Amino acid sequence: MLVLASASPRRKELLNLLVKNFDVLPADIDETPHTQEIAENYVVRMAVEKAIAAKIKYKQQSDIDITAVFIASDTSVVIDGHILGKPTSLEDSKNMLRLLSGRSHQVITSLCLCNLDREHLVTKCVVSDVFFRSISDVEIEQYWRTGEPQDKAGSYAIQGLGSVFVETMSGSYSAVVGLPLFETAQLLKQFGIHSLEDMSHE
């Protein structure tokens, strides 16, 4: 039994490429960065806290599977060491995309997998570099009106219309979307979940 600790439809779609049967159990946590917290540490901490929160929520259910494995992930857009969250307004989105315009930034995505008693807890952090072409204010306003950037870290979605801003990238595309597939498959193996092998037995 695998439990995804996320409400993100993108993470659900990506995980579904690797595992056909899993439950979704998102858990709310405080996502405020600590003072002077390094971006990589923050992203890993978020994934760990999500996994643990989902585990606690799961244990409150009447029917639980003691073999349950929890998977959580977190993605942050980082530029000049500064973490960009989700925009709260058009002005906020403008500030973020102006900052990213014509420059390279990092997308840091973390993974955390743990079992029910947390005897086995593993984490992974994946850093990808994304370079944006120059973006005009008119483009930013039009993009905002599509509704796409409004719930996205850094105010863009690489898997959507936001891809028109991406000149080059290096790293893991799936990690930038929200779940690094290579690393996820590697960590799932540690918990006895072998994606392609399991599919071959269907």
Automatic annotation (TrEMBL):
Q: Where in the cell is it found?
A: Cytoplasm
Catalytic activity entry: dTTP + H2O = dTMP + diphosphate + H(+); UTP + H2O = UMP + diphosphate + H(+)
Task: List cofactor names only.
Answer: a divalent metal cation
Q: Where is this site: Important for substrate specificity?
A: R10, T75, Q159
Which residues are catalytic?
D74
Q: What is its EC number?
A: 3.6.1.9
Asked whether the keyword Protease is assigned, the reply is: no
Q: Which UniProt keywords apply?
A: Cytoplasm, Hydrolase, Nucleotide metabolism
* Top-level taxon of the source organism: Bacteria
What enzyme category does the UniProt record give? hydrolase
Q: InterPro entries, alphabetically?
A: ITPase-like_fam, Maf-like
Q: Does the keyword Oxidoreductase apply?
A: no
What function is annotated for this protein? Nucleoside triphosphate pyrophosphatase that hydrolyzes dTTP and UTP. May have a dual role in cell division arrest and in preventing the incorporation of modified nucleotides into cellular nucleic acids.
Q: According to its UniProt record, which protein family does this protein belong to?
A: Belongs to the Maf family. YhdE subfamily.
- State the name under which the record lists this protein: dTTP/UTP pyrophosphatase
